[in-house]
UniProtKB/TrEMBL annotation:
<dbReference type="InterPro" id="IPR055414">
    <property type="entry name" value="LRR_R13L4/SHOC2-like"/>
</dbReference>
<dbReference type="InterPro" id="IPR001611">
    <property type="entry name" value="Leu-rich_rpt"/>
</dbReference>
<keyword id="KW-0433">Leucine-rich repeat</keyword>
<dbReference type="InterPro" id="IPR003591">
    <property type="entry name" value="Leu-rich_rpt_typical-subtyp"/>
</dbReference>
<dbReference type="Pfam" id="PF23598">
    <property type="entry name" value="LRR_14"/>
</dbReference>
<dbReference type="GO" id="GO:0005737">
    <property type="term" value="C:cytoplasm"/>
</dbReference>
<dbReference type="InterPro" id="IPR032675">
    <property type="entry name" value="LRR_dom_sf"/>
</dbReference>
<protein>
    <recommendedName>
        <fullName>Disease resistance R13L4/SHOC-2-like LRR domain-containing protein</fullName>
    </recommendedName>
</protein>
<dbReference type="InterPro" id="IPR050216">
    <property type="entry name" value="LRR_domain-containing"/>
</dbReference>
<feature type="domain" description="Disease resistance R13L4/SHOC-2-like LRR">
    <location>
        <begin position="82"/>
        <end position="167"/>
    </location>
</feature>
<keyword id="KW-0677">Repeat</keyword>
């Protein structure tokens, strides 16, 4: 048996009966864990963009801001939609072993994000906006194609762990990163 929270999310993801969704009174106190039944982040964002724009109900659906975590390893995800910025309560984003080539600048709008694992992708660039993730504690960028990180990383005051193993970082960049983040445990 599913809880009401799960049923609401299942209804949101099903794309069925949009008029029922319009009548829901969702609040910030509702917590939804989508990792168990979210088939793909793209499905959520496509539904959400298509239907929300069509019905003009961004505010009534609280912009999908109730999602707390997305854990989708090895799911063949090739991009993160810019609409992820509406997931303002997202705390954990785990997308390792996917097909990501880039991150949207909007990743910096996830102010509550504390854990970001985008290891084992094909990332060659990290957007400057990553420096806006003030609550980020763990960042795994291992096994990508990174040769440099943005200077804005200096703003990640709560970052405790940064994994950069298996990236083609030159020694000069490794030294620069250690200078930017002196209190962070960094694995090269």
């Amino acid at each position: 048996m599913h809880s009401n929270k799960e049923n609401i999310l299942r209804l949101l993801l099903s794309g069925q009966e949009e008029t029922i969704i319009l009548g829901l009174q969702l609040t910030q106190s509702l917590t939804i864990n989508v990792s168990d039944f979210l088939d793909d982040i793209d499905i959520l964002c496509e539904w959400w963009l298509g239907n929300c724009q069509r019905y003009g109900v961004y505010d009534k659906l609280v912009k999908i801001s109730l999602v707390k975590e997305i854990i989708r390893p090895n799911a063949q995800i090739s991009c993160i939609p810019s609409q992820i910025k509406y997931m303002s309560n997202l705390k954990e984003l785990v997308l390792y072993k996917n097909q990501l080539h880039s991150l949207p600048c909007e990743i910096g709008d996830l102010y509550n994000l504390s854990w970001l694992d985008i290891s084992e992708n094909q990332l060659s660039h990290i957007p400057e906006t990553i420096g806006k993730l003030a609550n980020l504690e763990e960042l795994n960028l291992s096994t990508n194609r990174l040769q440099t990180l943005p200077d804005t990383m200096i703003n990640l005051n709560n970052l405790q762990s940064l994994d950069l193993k298996n990236n083609p970082l030159p020694d000069s960049e490794k030294n620069r990163i250690q200078t930017l983040l002196p209190d962070c445990k960094i694995n090269f």
